[in-house]
Write a structure and sequence with these properties.
CATH architecture: Alpha-Beta Barrel
Shape: globular
Order of helices and strands: HHHEEEEHEHEHEHEEHHEHEHEHEHE
Largest sheet: 8 strands, parallel, barrel
CATH class: Alpha Beta
Helix content: 40-55%
Strand order of the largest sheet: 4-5-6-7-10-11-12-13
Distance between the termini: 23 Å
Pfam family, one: FMN_dh
Structural class: alpha/beta
Cofactor: FMN
InterPro entries: Aldolase_TIM (IPR013785), Alpha-hydoxy_acid_DH_FMN (IPR012133), FMN-dep_DH (IPR000262), FMN_HAD (IPR037396), FMN_hydac_DH_AS (IPR008259)
Bound molecules: flavin mononucleotide, 2-Ketohexanoic acid
Organism: Aeromicrobium alkaliterrae
Family: Belongs to the FMN-dependent alpha-hydroxy acid dehydrogenase family.
Number of domains: 1
Radius of gyration: 19 Å
Length: about 350
């Protein structure tokens, strides 16, 4: 993780607390980072690795690599270019981009910026279902019309996690385009209260029918919920504890992935996130059953420090590390990573 003092000078204590913080005592936030080193890599030697292929398949489409930009709200508070910075970085590195429905840049503007850099670039749209259903439905229409190819419905946010940093700073957000385009700044608590806490599996079906695009459910940690997601027609599942920002002391993403992959692996695309900062983290996720991996804060710090170029540098480094990991693991194709390449690390 980057030096917080430096970032505080750049973006201010309120935004830093919001971006960096987690729920409760931040045990899950810390564990997300630590969890990757609980798994050890098992390299195979004397394999021809002169050619490497980082490719994966998501929603039936080949992608040149498995690194995905996580949906993150209010990016103009990290850097004035906001979502355009991370989206351009994604387009330049052929990374799948997921735009938050709590964006500070409109979905069509983000789509245009990506197309200008890389025509045919891929993006998904993340949806929160708000109490005002019309707002969510409008967002889905905007996303579909501007070429977003899947709807990521986040299901781990019926209410906000217990976020003590925001309570201390009283951080307020300007211009969340969906909810308050030209109104006064709102506290995160006011914005979070607009989420619909009564959302159930029945509503997912309704949004899936109306979406006209594949639906991916984000924020699942239990195998029985993963099975239910498959039964409800989801095309993908993002195994995630929301970057430790919702319920403190849950499993880390990678620890939750293992039983979920056992339950539903092969019948649906599996993505995982939480604390990913290195290419070898990505390799471990793939070996344990993920098809792709989302990166959140690590990328946001790149945006905060250097705008689009800063975010691009972060993505390029993770991809170079993944390439190096495949070579050193003796597994030249990312798609061939399996459980033989990873195991528990003896702790002590
Ligand atoms: C500042 C911030 C804002 C976020 N906003 C959203 C959001 O709008 N929608 C969503 O589904 N997840 C959101 N998330 C969660 C991320 O998509 C992702 O699950 C998490 O950040 C991954 O963990 P990492 O930051 O350790 O990589 C947010 C995370 C952060 C750090
Ligand atoms: C209401 C905005 C939610 C953004 C988010 O998901 C987060 O802060 O974790």
């Amino acid at each position: 993780m980057s030096d917080p003092l430096d970032l505080e000078a750049l973006i201010g204590p309120g935004a830093l607390g919001y971006f960096a913080g987690g729920a409760g005592s931040e045990i899950t936030l810390r564990d997300n980072l630590a969890s990757w080193s609980r798994y050890a890599l098992h390299p195979r030697v004397l394999v021809d690795v002169s050619e490497r292929d980082l490719g994966t398949t998501l929603l039936g489409r080949y992608r040149p690599h498995p690194v995905v930009v996580a949906p993150m709200a209010y990016q103009k508070h990290a850097h004035e270019v906001g979502e355009l910075g991370t989206a351009e970085a994604a387009a330049r590195t052929e990374s799948l981009y997921v735009l938050s429905s709590q964006t500070t840049t409109s979905p069509p503007d983000v789509a245009r910026a990506m197309e200008a850099v890389a025509p045919g670039s891929d993006r998904w749209f993340q949806l929160y279902v708000f109490r005002d259903r019309a707002v969510s439905h409008d967002l889905v229409v905007q996303a579909r019309e501007s070429g977003y190819e899947a709807l990521v419905i986040t299901v781990d946010f019926p209410v906000a996690g217990w976020r003590e940093r925001d309570r201390r700073t009283g951080f307020t957000v300007e211009h969340p385009v969906a909810l308050n385009p030209s109104g006064p700044p709102l506290t995160t608590e006011q914005l979070f209260a607009m989420h619909d806490p009564s959302l159930t599996w029945d509503d997912i079906g309704e949004f899936a029918d109306a979406a006209g695009m594949p639906v991916v459910l984000k924020g699942i940690l239990r195998p029985d919920d993963a099975e239910r997601a498959v039964d409800s027609g989801a095309a993908g599942i993002i195994v995630s504890n929301h970057g430790g920002r919702q319920l403190d002391t849950t499993l880390s993403g990678i620890d939750a992935l293992v039983p979920i992959a056992q339950a539903v692996g092969g019948s649906v695309d599996l993505l995982v996130d939480g604390g990913v900062t290195r290419g070898w983290d990505v390799a471990k996720a793939l070996a344990l059953g993920a098809d792709a991996v989302l990166i959140g804060r690590h990328l946001l710090w790149g945006l905060a420090r250097g705008g689009a170029q800063g975010a691009e540098d972060v993505l390029r480094q993770v991809l170079a590390e993944l390439d190096s990991t495949l070579a050193l693991l003796g597994c030249p194709a990312a798609a061939d990573l399996d459980a033989s390449y990873v195991g528990p690390r003896a702790v002590g």
